[in-house]
Amino acid sequence: MKHEDLTRKIIACAYNVHNKLGFGFLESVYRRAMMIELARMGLKAEEEKPLKVHYDEHIVGDFSADILVEDEVIVELKSVQQFAIGHELQLVNYLNGIKLDVGLLLNFGPRNVDVKRKYRKKEIEEG
């Protein structure tokens, strides 16, 4: 599945979750609801997925992705008034550190779901 198709399906799940739950819950509530929606879409998803952080050819740490979909897309969830630039930078750093190409930052905000697609490699973003 192409990244664009996969991220579109993930975003559709986020809108379903927001339409049913609205704003104001902890990220863990949205994460569990997202897992249900992703399963309904037939997508393989793992929550709190531990991943290794690389520096050059060395493993230098670990972090847990909120959700990893199809072993290809990191999904980081927020439930805040609005994104901060730090949220976006953190996701790009995760992508670089674990050597995945695509990530989604989803904020279950007061009015809607805010979506930011982030890429590790420039050619993925353009192509």
What does this structure look like?
With 127 residues, the protein is of the alpha+beta class. The protein has one domain (3-126): Lambda Exonuclease, Chain A (Alpha-Beta Complex), CATH 3.90.320.10. 41% of the residues lie in helices and 34% in strands. It has four helices and five strands, in the order ααβββαββα. A five-stranded mixed beta sheet has the order 1-2-3-4-5, sandwiched between helices. The model is unreliable at 123-127 (pLDDT under 50).
Give a topology summary.
Layout (H helix, E strand, L loop, with lengths): L2 H19 L5 H14 L4 E11 L2 E12 L3 E6 L6 H14 L3 E7 L4 E7 L2 H5 L1
Parallel strand pairs: 3-4
Antiparallel strand pairs: 1-2, 2-3, 4-5
Strand/helix succession: HHEEEHEEH
Mean pLDDT: 90
Helix-and-strand structural type: alpha+beta
> Care to count the β-strands?
5
What is the percentage of strand-forming residues? 25-35%
Stretches where pLDDT is under 50 for at least 5 consecutive residues are 123-127
- Estimate the helix proportion, in percent: 40-55%
What is the CATH class name?
Alpha Beta
Radius of gyration: 14 Å
How many structurally independent domains? 1
Q: How are the strands of the biggest sheet laid out side by side?
A: 1-2-3-4-5
The major beta sheet can be summarized as: 5 strands, mixed
* Shape call: globular
Amino-to-carboxy terminus distance: 15 Å
InterPro entries: GxxExxY
Protein name: GxxExxY protein
Pfam families: PDDEXK_3
Organism: Desulfonatronospira thiodismutans ASO3-1
